[in-house]
Task: inverse folding
């Protein structure tokens, strides 16, 4: 059973370009979470998506960032007009349907995409 | 904001048990304690979670105090590959999904 797959592993973009980060969840997982880790800082939650729905985007910057998880295909985190401050590691995690009120299942993380803006 | 307090760093001799403490004095009755770790430059890895009973799996043991205000993650025989940042996270049973709020964690250095 393949784990959470993220690609590309490394991405270099010039300022002003667009960055697209892809995440394929584990088989059977329909919930995806994106996190950002700035250099020498901790992991920060960005957005939580279920198939075709955004459940929680409280950690997403208000401009230039968007995320989707279509019915078919991977989840995409899109950053428009990148700036140097967007340079970071972006991690995706996935889980099965959560069991509210019961024993929650754990989330599994991918190896991340390291975005460098030059 | 993270609801846990962990020491910033710890050292452990290879082959010895590593005991990583976590304080979560404001934990409520419907919140689980989760542990993840992040080995340098890799994605976080799930270790274990528990509600009020002690838990054990192939990676570690989790000891939760009776009042649930603190817990300890135990790696019984630490190896050099266990060097990582260890995160203690509390999250609610009633919260939909598996959103995790990471704090600064504990940097565990296993030394030969």
Result:
């Amino acid at each position: 059973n393949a784990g959470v797959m993220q690609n590309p592993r490394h991405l270099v973009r010039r300022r002003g370009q667009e960055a697209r980060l892809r995440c394929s969840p584990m088989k059977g997982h329909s919930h995806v979470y994106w996190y950002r880790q700035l250099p020498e800082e901790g992991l920060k939650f960005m957005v939580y998506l279920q198939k075709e729905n955004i459940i929680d985007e409280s950690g997403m910057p208000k401009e230039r960032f968007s995320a989707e998880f279509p019915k078919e295909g991977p989840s995409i985190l899109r950053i428009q007009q990148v700036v140097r401050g967007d340079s970071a590691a972006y991690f995706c995690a996935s889980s099965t349907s959560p069991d509210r009120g019961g024993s929650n299942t754990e989330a599994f993380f991918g190896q991340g995409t390291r975005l460098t803006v030059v | 904001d993270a609801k846990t307090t962990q020491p910033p760093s710890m050292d452990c001799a290879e082959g010895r048990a590593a005991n990583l403490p976590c304080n979560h004095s404001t934990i409520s009755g419907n919140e689980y304690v989760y542990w993840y770790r992040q080995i340098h430059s890799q994605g976080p890895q799930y270790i274990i979670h528990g509600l009020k009973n002690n838990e054990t799996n192939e990676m570690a043991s989790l000891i939760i105090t009776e009042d649930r205000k603190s817990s300890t993650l135990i790696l019984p025989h630490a190896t050099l590959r266990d060097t990582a940042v260890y995160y203690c996270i509390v999250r609610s049973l009633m919260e939909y999904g598996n959103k995790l709020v990471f704090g600064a964690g504990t940097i565990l250095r296993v030394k030969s």
